[in-house]
Amino acid sequence: MPSSATSAVDAQQPSPKPPASGKNALDRYFRISERGSSVAREMRGGLATFFAMAYIIVLNPIILGAGQDKFGHQLDNGQLVTATALMAGLSTVLMGAIGNVPIACAAGLGINAVVSLQLAPKMSWPDAMGMVVLAGLVLMVLVASGLRQRVMDAIPGGLRRAIAIGIGLFISLIGLVDSGFVTRNPDAAHTTVPLGLGQGGQLQGWPVLIFVVGLALTFILVVRKAPGAILIGIVTMTFVAIVINSLVDVPGKSWGLSVPTWPDKIVDTPDFGLIGDVSLFGGFHEVGLLTGCLFVFTVLLSGFFDAMGTIIGVGEEAGLTDENGQLPNMGKILMIDGIAVAAGGAGSASANTCFVESTAGVGEGARTGLANLMTGGLFLLALVFTPLATVVPAQAATPALVVVGFLIMASNVKEIDWSDFTIAIPAFLTIISMPFTYSITNGIGIGVLAFILLRIADKRAREIPWLLNVVGLCFLVYFLLDPIEQVLGVK
């Protein structure tokens, strides 16, 4: 999720002492000795970060591949694996080479759900990815103009935390549904309960058992603070699923998009078919200017604050921040984050963002961008191992969604001031609206509008940043779009 999710599983190590080695060109460029590290530590740290976040190579294609665009098209799983690994590798290398921080980038969990479940169903896949590119371009403009920090400050801290929690719950619900653990009750049942356990209230079949065991295993690894807990869970349950599928007659459709069978070959030529398949403004033709702008805003906001928090959090853990909490090269780091968002869309991998799993590398001694060259290089190497990633069934990967959702919630819920109802109520509405309406956009909009309304009712209107009022006005028009169109005779 991107996200503040899996830092809970990373073992913490004391900061290493500066090595006594002399300086060379590599050392001077990355300031390795100056930051108390060594080439060996950076390489080890980069390796740890890769293994902590390599699950995204499997998970992102499953989330994006589960969605259909307006015309019923689904993205190819093999092409998605290639796009995910390629864009993660390039973004991570760029962050290391220019930003000189050990912060890796890859497709953000939560943002990919927005693209798959909200944007794509209303337009074509190239249109949806174009929205992501536009969000990245807007982000770059915000950084260049200095507005990114101002927008950041306009959203109350409690509401920012609620947005993260809501996304976490939304991701968890997606994991439960995609695994088959939770299913939609048919309309013919004439029930007010929209979801139910398994099939007819019972868990049936080997695939669901794989999910349940995988979820238990991953949580156990998290409790044990095992480095790379999520990846270990995915790999282990994929192997178990392959064995079960070879011994038991399991209908292929029960596994979903990927049937767990050992591939004919382990190494293959990457399929770059999705790279550059983007339409920048086609989405506006499908949904209209206002809705299109709000979609871009949603993608922007979904990764905006999480990336900022991750950058600061990893920087503090690495001991790189100054007394004001700022990192060296902050302007470059934020700009590269914007480039990563746009590049992810251009590669049809969804928006790339900073991963807090980078703390795994920091725990192993990484202090510079050299670690990113190792992490990014391993992502690029993974391109030729695409067949291995395509055998992972949804039931082996979706436990990661539930675990990430929990960790996001656990790390954010305690930071909300529940004693102040003008922030607690909007936070609550934001959190429940995202999974209950199956929409991140709705959750953000409802939370912002509730905050503005309650602050005005509490005679604290002056405390509302003007920029937040502008955002609230956009969301008000969004929710009232249908009656507005009727009044104007547009519909």
Features:
491 residues; mainly alpha; two-stranded antiparallel sheet; two-stranded antiparallel ribbon; 22 helices; globular; disordered N terminus
Characterise the protein shown here:
This protein has helices at residues 25-30, 39-53, 56-65, 77-99, 111-119, 125-145, 147-154, 157-179, 206-223, 229-247, 282-287, 289-317, 330-346, 359-363, 370-381, 386-389, 394-397, 399-412, 421-437, 440-457, 466-479, 481-488, and strands spanning 105-107, 182-184, 195-197, 352-354. It has 491 residues and is mainly alpha-helical. Strands 1-4 form a two-stranded antiparallel ribbon. A two-stranded antiparallel sheet has the order 2-3. α4 packs antiparallel against α13 (330-346), α8 (157-179) runs antiparallel to α18 (399-412) and α9 packs parallel to α18.
